[in-house]
Design brief:
Order of helices and strands: HHHHHHHHH
Number of helices: 9
Oligomer: single chain
Helix content: over 70%
Distance between the termini: 29 Å
Number of strands: 0
């Protein structure tokens, strides 16, 4: 099973890499939002440090929505999902492998450029480190929870707005704890509690989300 999951991850990473629109669009959107926002506020260091964490995570959340709308769409349209259902392996393994590949191709580049973007908001090394920790523990939750919404709309067209309405409420706890951790670090307080909560949310998501998404995909295929 592990070999199968690794093979799917490799395949999905290659497919995403060969289609630059899939990974460039969310990344460029995130960078543009983060770069343009300081131009709209008072150029004060304390103000930028205060609003920076929320802006970074809000831009990341919106970029995630852009990347999730077609997460299972191509596999649904070319019949790959139906073929996987005929195999002896669980559909949840296929879903988990796709989500891992999606995270590697979409969010790893974001994490790599975060230190440069954090400098625009005058975030020091310690705060930038906390920001990276929130990304490592929080972004997987965004992908896992978003997969449930992507599975619900897999058979629909022009459903980006519906996807946002479905999964935005699920993102609220992650957004709250991530921004709370960074804000606490900026103020000189410990961010440990918020990081622990983000880790707990990730653990809860990775246990349930692949199976919920797989069950939703089965229902969508059965009633197509």
């Amino acid at each position: 099973m592990l070999k199968i999951i690794l093979t799917i991850i490799h395949r999905e990473c290659l497919l995403i890499w060969r289609c630059p629109v899939e990974w460039c669009t969310p990344l460029l959107f995130f960078i543009l939002v983060v770069l343009l926002f300081p131009l709209t506020v008072v150029p004060d260091i304390k103000t930028l440090q205060l609003v920076g964490p929320g802006i970074l995570w809000l831009a990341l959340l919106l970029a995630t929505l852009l990347s999730l709308s077609k997460l299972f769409q191509a596999d649904y349209e070319d019949g790959s999902l139906e073929q996987w259902l005929l195999r002896p392996w669980p559909l949840s393994a296929f879903v988990l492998a796709k989500l891992i590949a999606h995270w590697l191709m979409i969010f790893v580049p974001v994490i790599l450029i975060i230190p440069l973007l954090a400098m625009m908001y005058h975030l020091n090394f310690h705060v930038s480190l906390i920001l990276i920790l929130t990304l490592l523990t929080g972004t997987p939750s965004l992908i896992l929870l978003g997969s449930i919404g992507a599975a619900l709309i897999v058979s629909l067209r022009q459903s980006s707005l519906l996807l946002a309405l479905i999964i935005l409420p699920l993102y609220v706890p992650t957004l709250i704890f991530a921004t709370s951790a960074i804000t606490s670090a900026v103020a000189g307080f410990s961010a440990t509690a918020s990081i622990i909560w983000l880790t707990a949310l990730f653990s809860f998501s990775v246990i349930l989300a692949p199976w919920v998404s797989a069950a939703t995909l089965k229902i969508g295929i059965a009633y197509q």
